[in-house]
Amino acid sequence: MLLNVVNYGHPVLRQRGVRIEAVTPEIRSLAANMIETMHAAQGIGLAGQQVAQALQIFVLDLREVTDRPSTLEWEGEPADIADRMPLVLINPEVTPLNGATDTGPEGCLSFPEIFAEQITRPASVRVSAWNERGETIRFACGGLLARAVQHEHDHVRGILFIDRMTSAERRKWQPDLDALQDATRAALRTGR
Ligand code: ZN
Fold first, then answer.
1. CA dist 89 → 142, 183, 187 (Å)
2. So which residues are the catalytic ones?
């Protein structure tokens, strides 16, 4: 089932996600719907907050991206990204692997037509989470996958990529951000 993706200006995007205590049928259904919604929107990641669920859950699928490489070590072994997608991550813990950073472009399904050129993040991270079956999974990743994991991990803590824009980029986009926020709030007020 396709879910409605909320835009910037919806208060849920600033809510910290509640920890999921058990992977119930409802959570599995939410995860499946989030994957379907992400695919339909041609996104590579989607967090619970973006479908108005302030929970510690996000989904990823990078298989369609061919021009921005990733690295993946799954449970300590080099792994093929495609074999692990789509990914459901519940109650994720994300830790930078070393001091290296990477600067690159980002977009977000909750910010149509708004794109950052320069978001700086740790270049590689270690991740521990539950999957959609409630099993603990552990992996280390770099490249686009590390960027996507951190973007979504921010979402489940109420942090948005505009918070990590350079001040120059943020200034450039501020009129568009204000307009998007106003439109979202107006739609919420009229119940549309
Ligand atoms: Zn996003």
1. 17, 31, 31
2. 152
